[in-house]
Amino acid sequence: MTPHAALNALTGIDGLLSEEERDLASMVRKYADDRLRPHLADWFEAGDLPAREIAKDLGGLGLLGMHLDGYGCGGSSATAYGIACLEMEAADSGLRSLVSVQGSLAMTAIHKFGSEEQKQEWLPKMAAGDAIGCFGLTEPDFGSDPAGMRTRARRDGDDWVLNGAKMWITNGTVADVAIVWAQTDARIRGFVVPTDTSGFEAREVKHKMSLRASKTAELSFTDLRLPGSAILPEVKGLRGPLSCLSEARFGIVFGAMGAARDCLETALEYADTRKVFDKALGGYQITQMKLADMALELTKGVLLALHLGRLKDGGGITNEQVSLGKLNNCREAIKIARECRTILGANGITLEYPIIRHANNLESVMTYEGTSEVHQLIIGQALTGSSAFR
Amino acid sequence: MNIVVCVKYVPDAQGDRTFKDDNTTDREGVDGLLSELDEYAVEAALKLKESGEGEVTVVTVGPEAAADAVKKSLQMGADKGVHVCDDAIHGSDAAATSLLLAEAIKKSGEYDLVLAGLASTDGTMSVVPAMLAERLGLPQVTQVSTLEVEGGTVKGRRDSDVASDTIEASLPALVSVTDQINEPRYPSFKGIMAAKKKPVETWSLADLGVDAERVGLAGSWTKVTSFAKRPPREKGEIVTDEGDGGTKLAEYLAAQKFV
What we know:
Chain A: One of its GO terms (biological process) is fatty acid beta-oxidation using acyl-CoA dehydrogenase. The complex is a heterodimer. By secondary structure, chain A is of the alpha+beta class.
């Protein structure tokens, strides 16, 4: 039995999925195995990937904005979208990030808060992967406290003029459109910014040791002039970007368990084939203890993800519940990745195996879309009624 | 244009392959899938459909689990499916299978083109398409790496070691395609959801009017009497170069008839 089959035989989790959900999972897994996995080590090493080509593939598979309705989007359940994220992240967190930023952040912002013209213009080509989007909220000095943002949008006649900078922007250097959140005289507002607008600049963030198979940028806006129609009309204040973040966090709840599963499957295979002294590594109690504990945490994490998925599909998920999932699943995923690394010994640090790549990626995953600490504070506030953010 | 594609459900080549007590391939105790070589035929059909009008019907013969091969084809974009399924079919050889396919195709309605893959990935015999063409009285254009349909004719290129033949036939015709002809698509999310609503007919021998004595283990002209695992590869011969390494290598290759 393959490690994948062995894990599923143990947990029986496949039985919690519908036939279509299982087919979706195996479709994404097959695509990733055929087209992505063979290149991941090289992309990670080079710190580069053919993002446009991949986006086009993902559009063809229907994974971009798949949980949104209309405008060429898939109209899937939240759970199905989560399952797609899990399988993408089993390949690499950077690739799941591409899907998340496109679908959960950029497309969701337009879908939820955009004008009909903005939706018609952008959503169909973004769903097809013909246009790539990015999402600018975080700034060099403002991460967990986005309300302090310095990016400003000033009214000039009918136009808006943007000045400022955004940091850690996934897809920033390859994007056709950026959703930029900026402070106005009144509230924080969102803007749909074509990246070929004069005054827009995207510089690649170099020397990352995490999410290397993903494009990360610093964006800057210098007297960037937009027509009045570029503003997202349907939302004012931080609620806009934060509700998009909650969507992305939901995908991560599933995704992180994909990365963890891939590590555990790799470690199971390795423990079975690697001989230490006179028997397989997996025959030693200390290895089995590690494997059992990891399988347990993986199972709990996937169950939590599915639980949140079903809640969301039932229309009743809260941001605090998403925080529970993001906190647990990122934290446990990185623990699993590190523990798996110990099973592979020195081999665990090379890109020949996916483990160190996942472990390094997960450092970012537990930080972006709300750090673990922010999620602890959200959960703490939900429990006590007292805000301890500042 | 109505296109019928013959597909087969086979054991996953990545998994263990086992035989049952009657020396038939175990298709039930193992993970199975749509034979990868048949995906090229499905893709070829979908491409033809997309370039014009028409409908794609997939036909399979196999146990209950073989419905999966039909489902995968529908998820890729085929319009409807036919699954010939009957306990009496178990153990049918290529000739018996071609009989069942022929009857199912006739029953499924009007068709212009019957497509098949290069071979199944389990039996790898490549004979069913030719047998099927005989049974249906169709011209056969087998093992082509290109395919064009224009007016009432179909044209394809068959590549061999020494030459490439361009073969043309009038429709209706049977064409089998190689894995060089295209790159099969993955089912999309929308395809997976749409497939749920596509019609699939399941037909028994009685539905086809085929006598059980003509198929199955007893009705087949051939049967597997025994099997053996391939012996482990023998140790290679190491040629030490003492100035004549090249000559020795050439002699070896000539002795093995490689050159």
